[in-house]
Amino acid sequence: MNQPYVTRSGELYAKKRSTLKEGYIVRYADDFNILCRGWRTAQKWYHAVRLYLTATNADWNRSNIPYP
């Protein structure tokens, strides 16, 4: 799995087929922000984080989320 890609197009193709989400997580005192390149990636992160917080029964305030 640690082999380098032969071409750049092969690398992009593999990343598109992956379920991984590209983003940077920035932690603050008791919350975090996720920085993404595009809207579609932001939607994937939103749903993944929401499912995680629901599964762990975390207390979160939806009114502070700028996503509709």
SSE arrangement:
Layout: H1 8-17, E1 24-27, E2 32-35, H2 39-55
Antiparallel strand pairs: 1-2
Description:
The model has no long low-confidence stretch (mean pLDDT 79). This protein is of the alpha+beta class. It has 2 helices and 2 strands; from the N terminus they run αββα.
Q: What profile does the largest beta sheet have?
A: 2 strands, antiparallel
Which residues form runs of ≥5 with pLDDT under 50?
none
Head-to-tail CA distance between termini? 38 Å
Report the helical percentage: 25-40%
Give the ordered list of helices and strands: HEEH
Strand order of the largest sheet: 1-2
Mean pLDDT: 79
Number of beta strands = 2
User: Which structural class do you get from the secondary structure elements?
Assistant: alpha+beta
Radius of gyration over C-alpha positions, nearest whole angstrom: 15 Å
Count, helices: 2
Shape: elongated
In percent, how much strand structure appears in the residues? Answer: 5-15%
